[in-house]
Each structure stands twice: as C-alpha cells, then as structure tokens.
Design brief:
With 187 residues, this protein is mostly helical. The chain is 56% helix and 7% strand.
C-alpha cells in the first residue's frame, strides 16, 4: 500500500513508510489475536451453559464480562441482591419515614455497573436498521420517560430490568425470548 501511494516524497519518507508498515503489521497481528481469544471465550461460554448472547446487544465479550463480574449466580438469593451488588438498586436515604430513594453511587461493582449501562443503551437505542434492538425495553423506557422520569432515570430502570432478566437467565440457564409489546405493557 505504501509503495503504491502517490504522495510526493518528503524528508525521511522511508521512515514514514516504515512506521506505516509497522502499524499495519501490528493491526493484522492484533486482529488475529482477538480472533483466537474470541474463540477461547466462545468455548468457555458454551461450557458454562449460559445463553446470555441470546439477549439482543450481547456478544461473546459482553456475556463473558457479565459472567466474570457476577461470578457464581447461586451466591445471590434474588435479583434484588444482584441489583444491589451491581449498584443498580436504589438507596433509601431517609430518616423517620421522611426522605426518598436515590441512585446508589457508592456501592456496587463498577465494572458490572458499566457493562449494564452499556447494555441498557444497546437495548433502547436504534440499530443501524433504524429499529430498537429490544422493542419491549424501548417501550418501557418510553413509558418511564413520558411519566416523569429523566432519561438517566429511565436508563437506570432499564438496567434494573436487565439485572432481573440476566439473573433469571443465569439461574435457569435459559435463553432470552423477546416478549410481545402492546403499548408500554410487555406480555
């Protein structure tokens, strides 16, 4: 590619060409290494028995990240415990019955929180085809934002819903089945 380039010669052009060729070799090497690692991750995911990649927007890397950050699902007695671990459950900030719930920013595993945040965005925003990846969660997000929640609060609601879905999928080793959407209700 460098030899076919028609850019006029500059000072130390041979060094520039060598750097570009080195970068291209590195990119090719990294692509082959990524492919090998993804094959290993795919095998590990298959052996785990989890079907998290059946959830729209979840690829092999995201599924392995979820499994790595959650660990043994049996250590959580409910999806609520997992949500608290992930930092998605609201924190009650009240005294004598006065106060409100707020986002729990101080607790939870940040890597898991970040993965869930990324996944929530994947669920509600439109793909390159112009359709949401998960129409049910998109409808739920729309319902929450039209009924007084901010977009960030709506995303947190989606994250909390995802925690319940992921908990159930991992606990039962089941696949995700897209629910039908009727208005904002999901069946």
């Amino acid at each position: 590619m460098v030899s076919e380039d028609n850019i006029k010669e500059r000072d130390y052009q041979f060094a520039r060409d060598a750097v570009v060729q080195s970068i291209v070799r590195n990119i090719r090497f990294n692509r082959s290494e990524i492919k090998k690692l993804e094959e290993i991750l795919e095998k590990m995911l298959w052996e785990s028995g989890y079907h998290l990649e059946s959830l729209p927007g979840v690829d092999i890397v995201t599924a392995c990240s979820l499994i790595d950050n959650i660990g043994n699902i049996n250590r959580f007695s409910s999806a609520d415990k997992l949500a608290s671990f992930a930092g998605v459950a609201p924190k009650n900030n009240s005294s004598a019955g006065k106060g409100n719930d707020e986002q729990n920013k101080s607790q939870g595993k940040r890597e898991l929180y970040n993965t869930l945040f990324f996944l929530a965005n994947q669920q509600i925003y439109k793909s390159s085809k112009g359709e949401p990846r998960n129409p049910a969660l998109r409808a739920y997000f729309g319902y929450k934002t039209t009924h007084g929640k901010t977009k960030v609060q709506g995303l947190l609601c989606i994250m909390r819903r995802l925690v319940s879905i992921i908990y159930s999928m991992m606990k039962n080793k089941s696949e995700y089945h897209m629910p039908e959407v009727r208005g904002w209700e999901v069946s």
